[in-house]
Design a protein that fits this description.
CATH superfamily: Porin
Strand order of the largest sheet: 1-2-3-4-5-6-7-8-9-10-11-12-13-14-15-16
Radius of gyration: 21 Å
CATH topology: Porin
Strand content: over 45%
Number of domains: 1
Length: 383
């Protein structure tokens, strides 16, 4: 059995090694494909309001499947990719897509290049958000890692540069930057059927400092994206542009069985060039979001986590249930075997800012229940 002491803390508080720290050892070259995968099934139930799916009556529409392969080729070159299928309420139809794929050149720790559909290095967890086995919690804090935005913010087609620089007694620096583009036919992946989204620009960068205190990391991330959309609102066609600037400052600490993380972001979002302002008005808005989280491994197989997350949809209008959503969550994880886990997670939520009116009988957020609870169950088998 693998040693899980501290593993969940590290997984919760540091992103998976999407950009590895060093090149492969010589004996790895020419090795056969490494094959891994997972299958997850979840259940959502909310006391009031439908959240992510039709959860007010209980929903099993929370499924994920993935198969990924990596292979070292010639010296310093690696290839990899993942097929992914999911369903979360109205999002996804369990159709397999090429989730990410890349060719990676990594000769030097200080500078390496990756090209293809590459993951976006934003915050602590964006790259590892689809790896349920690597953390205790089920739903990452939705104020920063909205699961409904996965198709847009997980990866982009482009080029990444990354590296690590040792600074002796001052610790070490790591950096990653990606530039690219993305096109999605989202008719089966979001709640507005027939919507087409083109993402002509995506640019993201992250700088992280591993302090000389073991397990302590500071990081800052910034992401610029523009979505050009063509959709239907209230039966009327509308198109336009949606530029956004996202940032995050991050602090994480992991030692032994304990881990801690905190992140904060103030994001700018706008709607420009709307062809039908009456149903989809032009706007400009700043939002506030953040969380504090802790995790503790009680045994090799049993761990718990706790977080508090805050979200304000408009920093100039913080009052009213429709303008905020605060979430307190407690999660428990138990590993039944080395390759099969079960999680239970309870949320106490105030506010309705992140709720989808289309899932709630098209009622406005001002009419939805302001204080409500959510229970999430999930089991994952992986290899």
């Amino acid at each position: 059995m693998r040693d899980r002491t501290g593993a969940c803390a590290v997984a919760l508080l540091a992103a998976a090694q999407t950009f590895p720290a060093r090149a492969d050892a010589p004996e790895e070259q020419g090795r056969a494909f490494d094959v891994h995968g997972f299958a997850s099934q979840g259940f959502l139930w909310s006391t009031d309001n439908n959240y992510l799916a039709h959860s007010a009556r209980g929903s099993f529409e929370f499924s994920e499947l993935a198969l990924n392969l990596t292979k070292p080729l010639v010296s310093d070159v690696r290839v990899g990719g993942q097929l992914f299928a999911h369903r979360l309420g109205p999002i996804g139809d369990l159709k397999a897509i090429a989730d990410w794929y890349y060719v990676d050149w990594h000769r030097f720790d200080a500078f390496a290049v990756r090209a293809g559909r590459v993951k976006l290095p934003f915050g602590l967890y964006n790259e590892s958000s689809d790896y349920d086995a690597g953390r205790t919690i089920v739903l990452l804090p939705q104020s920063l890692y909205s699961i409904t935005s996965r198709d847009f913010l997980l990866a982009a087609t482009g080029v990444a540069v990354y590296g690590n620089v040792a600074m002796g007694g001052a610790g070490g620096l790591s950096y990653a930057a990606v530039g690219g583009t993305l096109f999605l036919d989202t008719s089966q992946t979001i709640s507005a059927p027939g919507t087409v989204v083109d993402v002509p620009y995506v640019a993201v960068a992250r700088l992280a400092w591993d302090l000389p205190v073991p397990g302590l990391r500071l990081a800052a991330s910034g992401l610029y994206v523009r979505l050009d959309f063509d959709t239907t609102v209230a039966g009327q066609p509308v198109s336009g542009r949606l530029p956004a600037v996202l940032d995050a400052v991050s602090l994480s600490f992991a030692r032994g069985p304990f881990g801690f993380a905190a992140e904060y972001g103030r994001w700018w979002v706008a709607v420009e060039g709307s062809t039908n302002p009456a149903v989809f008005p032009n706007l400009e808005r700043w939002t506030d979001r953040g969380y504090v989280a802790g995790v503790y491994n009680l045994t090799e197989r049993f761990s718990c986590a706790l977080y508090g997350s805050v979200f304000f949809a408009d920093v100039d209008h913080r009052e009213g249930r429709q303008n905020y959503q605060h979430d307190g969550a407690l999660a428990l994880r138990y590993d039944l075997t080395d390759n099969w886990l079960f999680k239970v997670e309870a949320h106490a939520i105030q506010g309705t800012a992140s709720l989808n009116p289309a899932l709630n009988g098209n009622r406005p957020r001002t009419q939805l229940v302001p204080d409500w609870g959510l229970l999430v169950l999930k089991t994952t088998a992986y290899f």
